[in-house]
Specification:
Two copies of one chain form a homodimer. By secondary structure, chain A is α+β, with helices and mostly antiparallel strands. The first copy, chain A, contains four helices and six strands, in the order H-H-E-H-H-E-E-E-E-E. The interface between A and B is large, with 39 and 39 residues. The structure holds manganese (II) ion (MN) (2 copies) and zinc ion (ZN) (2 copies). Chain A binds a DNA duplex through helix 2 and helix 4.
DNA sequence: ATTCTTCTTTAGAATAATTATAAAAAACTA
DNA sequence: TAGTTTTTTATAATTATTCTAAAGAAGAAT
């Protein structure tokens, strides 16, 4: 359970002013047991449900991108019309349940080591991500 | 070099009427040495450049989705605002050059075999795809 | 060939996600 | 407190994609 004060600290350290909206968004995003995969709309609705505070859709977009830029959120490429974000910013892989449109974390040990035996001159590898699509 | 007649045959066999537009799109897409990664807009412009024939944007969308449904094109999930398609419909992986926004095929032998050591009850694996992001 | 039926193309409207704008509000500084 | 900067917000704009419905083309039947 991360306290409000801790969020304020973290925001300040990131040169982001600790506004009510941002603190609330932090609480929704980071006070969780498990990693959280969400779309902008998911987050908007979760924040809206809380009686104490609301944030406009624009603020959700702004904040998610601010957090993403600071490295507190990760963007997940899935074949969908909406962008997914992930509170787990470590390098890891995913199941994607196509029917339920749901992302599930795969630990690195659930997927063997992947070594890429090809290289492109002048380019280096930034990330290696596996997406495993699931069907019924 | 695939002939017009062959495209007509293939379209007919797929219960798609061989229209001028579709034949032209086939020519742009499938008369290539290498696999072709493209967005709807890329294709629209390539077809437009040809003096002999033009196709509306709506037709490009319609045709790409018809071909996709028939299994002649593959959709590639990358973190972008546009959907990418691929004329290589076999199971394979990709490099994605983030700066140049370009996809490059990886052969299966360029990536070791990937075995997923986790399963979700009631679900089976549909596909396993690796996306390797490249930076300078 | 002529007519009929079905499919396809197309322009333009509609939708949906995202980004931009700019004024009011909140946070910070002096 | 007053001044400065950042943030929020409503709203407009943009962009990719899908929908609609009328005109055109293709195929089948006559
Ligand atoms: Mn994850
Ligand atoms: Mn490919
Ligand atoms: Zn972002
Ligand atoms: Zn499709």
């Amino acid at each position: 359970m991360i306290s409000k004060t801790e969020f304020i600290q973290k925001l300040r350290n990131s040169s982001l002013r600790p506004t009510k909206q941002r603190i609330d968004i932090c609480d929704v995003l980071f006070n969780r047991e498990k990693t959280f995969h969400f779309t902008i709309n998911d987050l908007f609705n979760l924040v809206k449900e809380r009686k104490d505070q609301k944030a406009s859709l624009a603020t959700i977009y702004n904040t998610v991108h601010a957090f993403h830029k600071k490295g507190y959120l990760k963007e997940i490429p899935i074949n969908s019309n909406q962008t997914y974000f992930d509170t787990n910013v470590t390098d890891h892989h995913h199941f994607f349940d196509v029917k339920e449109e749901r992302l599930i974390d795969l630990k690195n040990e659930d997927v063997g080591p992947i070594d890429i035996q090809k290289s492109i001159p002048g380019k280096k590898i930034k990330s290696v991500e596996v997406l495993v699509k699931l069907e019924d």
